[in-house]
Amino acid sequence: MLDVLRDHHGLAQEAGRDPAPSVMRLLAAAVDGEDELAAVAAVHGIGAVVDDEADAVLSRLLSHRRPFLREHAAWVLQSRLPRLDAIDRLVRVVVAGGFSGMLAQRTLESWGGPAGDHIVAALLRALADTRDPQARARLVETFGLFSAEPTGQAVGRIALDPDESPAARVRAVAALGDRPGDREAVRVIESLWAAGGDLGAVVRLAAVDLGLAAGSAPAGGAPGLRVAQLFLHADIDRQLSRAGAGDNGGVATLLVRLGDELAAQPGAGRVLTISRGTPESALAALTRDEKHVLAAVPMPGPAVNAADAWPARVAVRRGIRRLLRAHHIDVVHLRMAEVGSLAAAEVAAELDIPVVFTLAPDPHATIGALERTGGLRRDNFGLADEREHYWFRARLVQRLAAEADHVVLFPRPHLARDLETLIGIDIAAEAGRYSVVAEGIDLKVSRAAAAELTDSAASPALAELDALVGALPPHRHGLPLAMSVGRLHRVKGMATLVQAWAHDPALRERCNLLIVGGDLADPSPDEREQLELIARVLRDDPDASAGLLMPGHRPNDVVARWLAAAHAGRASLIAAGGVYVCASLKEEFGLALLEALAAGLVVVGPDAGGPATYIEHGVTGLLARAGDPAALAVAFRAALDLADLPMPSRVDLARARISAGLTVDSMAGSLAGIYASVTVEEHRS
Questions:
Q1: Using the 8-state DSSP alphabet, how is residue 35 labeled?
Q2: What are phi and psi of 387, to 5 degrees?
Q3: Among the listed residues 11, 441, 383, 465, the one whose alpha carbon sits nearest the alpha carbon of residue 255
Q4: Please, what is the angle between helix 84-96 and helix 112-129, to 10°?
Q5: Is residue 526 within 8 Å of residue 480, measured between CB atoms?
Q6: d(CA 26, CA 22)
Q7: In contact, 453 and 568? CB cutoff 8 Å
Q8: How far apart are alpha carbons 90 and 118 in whole angstroms?
């Protein structure tokens, strides 16, 4: 599968080179075949054929019975000339929503110049026939992307209509903010100034966009470089209170602590850490004047996971543009192939702001691991891609890496080889564009957690852990604790870990298992999937329930204290010598593993990616083949054996390794140098 993803240009070049009817017949046959990977590739191959029949086929695919083919056709049409018979079909895809709707909306937006009048007419027809509030909101948002005067008048009428759905009115108001100099837009926004709730907050954001209200941080501020970093799929606060819930993984924790360290670097002016939030919080963030500002981008509807957030592209782009302007940002750092990076890259290009991109083989490593373990096959690739958008994300990674002013890489044992194999990028060809920067943790957190063990009576975190373990049957008291911390997501492998532990009676009797993560009160679809898999394991091995603890997500500081307690033990409840087990299909670096090492625990991590650069196999931990439950169980047992041995030299070795370049302040120093270099190059150019 990775071969196909890497070589997609080869198929396109061959298809474009030979436009004979036989080529189109071959590609069309592949589209309808059982090999779903070949079907997707064939759609992109058709997109490279320069003839009217290719356009006609792509247009018809917008109505295909297989949703993933509709999705890829909507995407591929963006690179083609506008086709009138495709416009109504693309509008129907917008009405249906989801990832496909975003792609269709993007294609219509790109066609707006030559075919704008036709698109606006099709949108008006669809709006007249559509009653569903969310579908109307999507149509209004798409309508607002076109600058013709009648469009602005129609959007203004929707914004003012009290009988229109709140979702559609909010999208209409937001779109009016994109029409500076439009007197009708100004009139509508001024007439809605007294509105309350989300609508009122969006009115004031639109007023900022139109220049009717102040919306910039004070001009004085701290002089120096101004950096923006973002991860939209987290609820980021100073307390990191949502760590481990939904998509609030290690990156959310990292960005808060990294932002503090970057702001303290010499020459730093401001760090802007952008995540999702309400319109009210987005408005407040525009004028904040701290050195490290936690800022919000409002996204329509309730919070969703990263895979489902793509339809928010227009709102995200608008919110990011507003923040970058308000805080006079000099450089943007993007991570991961998600809607925030897609939108921020567009804004950075528009505002001529240099971009630094952290390149990781994601989703490539996940695809490789799933193919190796049988979870992903050619005959189910289309359905998996429909959910996870593997093909689009892989292309986005390549595009962001190619267009970035500088690319940051995670350390890996065979970095150049892995990037060539997984992504098809030869980093030796332009060595000056790449820098290897390890992620890092704040050792002050683990030191404070260890110090608290000596005064545990004053520690609510330790009291809670004692209560959790104390509630287990008495025969489970006094066992070591095996821990794993992270999101409840298939990539993190929590269900695989429970299976490896529960299905091995000897392993199960040696320790209790504590999994920290997930919003158990209101689980996301990904979390529900993992919880159901874990419940199935427990039905097969009901005795395992006696030693499994799943309290849900906890703030990072609480987790640090639990890791320290797993290492040192807790009186008669927890024996010393616990372990930390990571069952991820892939781990680009593994901050939770670093935190566990800093706490003194023996760790088990995947043998690919970043962990293999800092886990000394058989000394500070064990490396196991990712996605292999049997190999995980073997490493789990070996880790418990290793933890039984005298520990001072092992713990000192692990902590020394972290101190020598795996701290957040070391990471901040390296990145600050990169940011300074790209802004200097930008000024020279």
A1: -
A2: -85, -40
A3: 441
A4: 50
A5: no
A6: 6
A7: yes
A8: 12
The pLDDT averaged over each successive group of 10 residues in the chain (685 residues) is 81 74 86 94 91 92 95 96 96 97 97 93 95 96 89 93 95 95 93 93 95 75 88 78 61 90 95 94 92 94 87 97 96 95 97 96 90 92 95 95 96 92 90 94 93 84 96 97 93 93 94 95 90 95 96 92 96 95 91 96 93 95 90 96 89 94 96 94 58
Alpha-carbon torsion (662, 663, 664, 665), positive or negative:
negative
pTM of this structure? 0.92
What would you report as the CA-atom Rg of the chain, rounded to the nearest whole angstrom? Answer: 26
Q: Give ∠ CA 415-420-422 in degrees, rounded to 5.
A: 90
DSSP 536: H
Q: Residues 448, 450, 451, 454: is their CA dihedral positive or negative?
A: positive
Tokens in use for 62? Answer: 């917008």
Phi/psi of residue 113, each to 5°?
-65, -70
Round to whole Å and give the CA distance between 166 and 137.
Answer: 9
Alpha carbons 394 and 636: distance in angstroms, whole number? 33
Instruction: Give the position of tokens 């030559």.
Output: 114
Q: Which helix (H) or strand (E) holds 332?
A: strand 331-335
Sheet holding 481-485, edge to edge: 548-549, 512-516, 481-485, 579-581, 602-606, 621-624
Interior angle at CA 270, CA 264 and CA 274, nearest 5: 110
User: The tokens 């481990």 sit on which residue?
Assistant: 244
Query: What is the residue whose two structure tokens read 């501020």?
Result: 221
